[in-house]
């Protein structure tokens, strides 16, 4: 396990699923960990369960993203690690997709990433230190799923954003990378139903769905001092899902 003792880590969408898994692992690695989500009741309960702090945040609100980052710096003195993880994946087939459906997914997944990463970088630049880990997906950049063209575009968009941002901050002690999960068993995925999830399990080379902690360990590595020479990169964590040629 990489040592994050003394680091201040903030995870958007840390109250459920993958974000909760990241929070658990970063906390285990010694980071002072703060999680965020829009549901305050669940946020407070999960914060208690993980012995971390919670701050309510809707990542679609630019001023709120800036305020939350400022609050963290005011309380903890700095912000070392941002895991920009909050995301939604409502299914909409293209023939019926409305501009509202498209905008909502982009607003949370892509614009929310821009707002929060920009706010964190303003602080990290002053510190001349920072680790940003974005939760993207294999969907969009590598694979597609029917009903998820808006989602795939937003997840691939995060990677385009990440690569240019990484370049802009490469000389300042700041790294910006992304994790690309395959199918990870989270609360958000229960809507897909058992049949779909069992099918995925059977066709995944490792014959298992990923766990939130699998993404947590990857994020922990990218957030560590040992990963200091890695920036603008992606790591696929998918149990071999994208490997088969036939
Ligand atoms: P999840 O179980 O539904 O959890 C989503 C988290 O995001 C929750 O904490 C939720 O908290 C928060 N959130 C949603 N909208 C938000 C907003 N506007 N502002 C702030 N927080 C918000 O989802 P998940 O499966 O863990 O997915 C997490 C991330 O991993 C997403 O970016 C997703 O695209 C990516 N991903 C997931 C998988 C997978 O198989 N699960 C695969 C690839 C990529 P509230 O409900 O309180 O707002």
Automatic annotation (TrEMBL):
GO terms for biological process: fatty acid biosynthetic process. InterPro entries: NAD(P)-bd_dom_sf, SDR_fam. Transmembrane segments: none annotated. Keywords: Oxidoreductase. GO terms for molecular function: oxidoreductase activity, acting on the CH-OH group of donors, NAD or NADP as acceptor; quinone binding. The keyword Oxidoreductase applies. PANTHER family: 3-OXOACYL-[ACYL-CARRIER-PROTEIN] REDUCTASE (PTHR42760:SF133), SHORT-CHAIN DEHYDROGENASES/REDUCTASES FAMILY MEMBER (PTHR42760). Belongs to the short-chain dehydrogenases/reductases (SDR) family. This is 3-ketoacyl-ACP reductase. It comes from Xenorhabdus vietnamensis.
């Amino acid at each position: 396990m990489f040592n994050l003792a003394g680091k201040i880590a903030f995870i958007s969408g840390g109250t459920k699923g993958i974000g909760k898994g990241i929070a658990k692992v970063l906390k285990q690695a010694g980071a002072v960990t703060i999680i965020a989500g829009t549901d305050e009741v669940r946020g407070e309960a999960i914060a208690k369960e993980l012995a971390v702090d919670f701050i309510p945040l809707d990542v679609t609100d630019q001023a709120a993203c800036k305020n939350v980052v400022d609050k963290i710096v005011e309380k903890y003195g700095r912000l070392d690690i941002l895991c920009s993880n909050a995301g939604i994946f409502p299914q909409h087939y293209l023939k019926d997709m409305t501009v509202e459906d498209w905008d909502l997914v982009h607003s949370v997944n892509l614009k929310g990433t821009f707002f929060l990463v920009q706010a964190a970088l303003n602080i990290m630049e002053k510190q001349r230190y920072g680790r940003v880990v974005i939760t993207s997906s294999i969907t969009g950049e590598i694979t597609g799923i029917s009903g998820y063209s808006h989602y795939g575009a937003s997840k691939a968009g995060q990677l385009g954003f990440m690569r240019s941002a990484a370049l802009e901050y490469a000389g300042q002690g700041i790294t910006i990378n992304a994790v690309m999960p395959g199918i990870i068993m989270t609360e958000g995925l229960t809507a897909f139903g058992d049949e779909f999830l069992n099918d995925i399990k059977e066709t995944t080379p490792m014959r298992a769905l990923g766990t939130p902690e699998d993404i947590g360990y990857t994020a922990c590595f990218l957030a560590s001092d040992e990963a200091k020479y890695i920036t603008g990169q992606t790591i696929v964590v998918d149990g071999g899902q994208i490997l088969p040629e036939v």
